[in-house]
Design brief:
Layout lengths: L1 E5 L5 H12 L3 E5 L9 E3 L9 E4 L4 E4 L3 E6 L13 H21 L4 E2 L2 H8 L1 H10 L7 E4 L2 H10 L4 E4 L8 E2 L7 H4 L7 E5 L5 E7 L2 E8 L12 E5 L3 H7 L4
Parallel strand pairs: 1-2, 1-6, 6-7
Antiparallel strand pairs: 3-4, 4-5, 8-11, 9-10, 9-11, 12-13, 13-14
Length: 251
């Protein structure tokens, strides 16, 4: 039986997982979404999972969906389509492709780690903060906006102690500087909203909640965003029981 890895061998986390699985005698198979639908192939039979198939010619793989042991969604690179002059046709191609893959993942009888629903929830970070605050947990002062006036007011209220980052993720955190508040810079907000937050000093601890248990690590870095520090150390830590309970409050 195979384990489907949504990711690519050129992505560090997916490659690490594949190596670990192979060392345990498992058979991992990459599903690089950039190769679908141009090269990788699927055939879905709604009432017969055993007749539904995933094929990856580049890996020499053809598996029945009924024979998948599990799926690990690490990273969805998006789809790549041939050039299309008509934007409507391109939008339709993306919609139909996404619907097919979403259906495939929901049809599976095996465990799907990071389900489509979990991935979708992860994308709405502002909503996550809303849920945490509604549950009584403290969260940094936050503004998600494309309104320059609101950003300026937020900056003033927090005395300039503000960071900014993407609303969904995908780029590094940076400190908001006076030059960022100039009209030509604020005009960039017309392209998309941005997430602004109060700058909170202190130790950076990341926590994963899995199967009712908290796994925490301190990221020891000299930079605002640890991804900018190639020497950042990751050290496991034990959280106080009260904080562990808080981490599982929305589970």
């Amino acid at each position: 039986m195979s384990i489907l890895i949504i990711g690519s061998p050129d992505e560090a986390h997916a490659s690490f997982m594949v190596g670990k699985l192979q060392a345990r005698g498992e058979t991992p198979v990459y599903f690089d979404t950039r190769l679908f639908p141009s090269r990788d192939l699927i055939a879905l039979v709604p009432d017969a999972l055993e007749k539904s198939r995933f094929k990856c010619p580049a890996q020499g793989v053809e598996v029945s969906l009924a024979d998948l042991k599990s799926v690990y969604w690490r990273f969805h690179f998006g789809y790549q389509f041939p050039p299309m002059k008509d934007q409507f046709l391109l939008d339709m191609a993306h919609r139909e492709t996404d619907s097919a893959i979403g259906s495939m993942l929901r049809m599976l009888s095996c465990p799907v780690i990071n389900s489509p629903e979990a991935i979708a929830q992860h994308a709405y970070k502002t909503y996550q903060l809303h849920l945490l605050r509604r549950a009584g947990l403290r969260v940094p002062e936050t503004l998600v906006s494309n309104d320059p006036d609101e950003v300026l007011a937020f900056w003033e209220r927090l005395n300039g102690r503000v960071i900014f980052k993407p609303v969904r993720g995908g780029a590094h955190t940076a400190k908001l500087k006076p030059d960022d508040l100039k009209p030509d810079r604020l005009k960039e907000l017309s392209k998309s909203p941005v997430q602004f937050q109060e700058l909170v000093e202190g130790v950076d601890v990341r926590v994963y909640w899995m199967a009712g248990e908290a796994f925490a690590a301190e990221i020891q870095s000299k930079t605002l965003d640890f991804r900018d520090d190639p020497k950042a150390a990751i050290v496991p830590v034990e959280l106080p029981e009260a904080i562990q309970r808080d981490c599982g409050i929305l589970a």
